[in-house]
Amino acid sequence: MLGEDDDDDDSEEVDSCNNDPEPFLQFMKKMLLLQYLVTVLEGGFRPRNSTYQGRISRFHCDGLSETMVDSYVLAENLDWTILRESLLSMLLGSRKIPYKGLIKSSLSALYNLSQSTVSSEEDSCSDKTQREELHEVDRAIALALPEVEKSTCNVLKKFFIMIMELDSSKRTADQHGLTTRADGVRTPAVEIILDELINDSDVLSSFLKVFDPKWRLEIIVQYFQKYISKNSFQTRSSTGTINTENFDGLLKYLSNSKRTKSIIKKITTEAIQLLLAYGFQAYVMLLHDESQGFSDMLEDVKSNSAVGVCEDLISAFTCLRREDPNTGILCCGKQALITAAATISNLRSI
Prior knowledge:
Blueprint: H1 8-16, H2 21-61, H3 66-75, H4 78-84, H5 87-93, H6 99-122, H7 128-137, H8 139-175, H9 189-199, H10 204-208, H11 213-225, H12 247-254, H13 257-263, H14 269-292, H15 299-302, H16 306-323, H17 331-348
């Protein structure tokens, strides 16, 4: 579970030996070693993945048909081979590494470190007794430990983002027939993350804050996908289907009382509110980045106008309230609704 600490031995050792600096030093050494290892993995993965993604994007942007794209990609399959031979890919595919155990342990560490970082930022005097004892041991350790924890948390975020990017690249390679038996079969990291969040919904709010907007939106969309049946996408109109593989499609799907009534039997109203609120927040942040010209924008962020998304968000919350009148709107939900209403007002006044 995410709330559990897989480093209990280290934590107990540190807590029980406040008068001895050695446990703190050993703890920081492990975190610094982890930072170094992830940095090495990143140095080998980023250039390879950028080259691979650049080639795939170029073929599609040239207006080629899927058949022609496949032919060109197959002719240059060395790109995927290079990515497959990255240290990150070899580490995750090694039979000597318990892959799911690694992901779950890393998730637990990321969650605990992120909570520790948030607590220290919100209240610099929290855990005052421990800090006083720590100062008595070594002032340098007292100053260094929070920064080491924060930097380790950021490195773990990078680690997960790299794994998810590798999964995405592998999925693209598989679609073009570039993968072989040598690539093995591995559960995508997002699915493991979702399983952990579903099993421990109490940490949903805290954990969604960890990732950047792009991957937060991806996780939220796939979370809903777990509970939406494939044959429920059809609409009554002749216009076809609702694409629930992007955020604005999910909002349209939830803007229907019958579908909302069905999904709240599987997900609590509070969880749906959290997912919608954080998803909308990520959507707005990505939209802002696009307007600044800096973002590698997701397709689903481009797919609908901001006004339409805001209207669908309000409609989705209206359906939630109608189907579950006994549950109030959470604070994050109210903030999302206020932002949506203000956005509609501002854009329509232009």
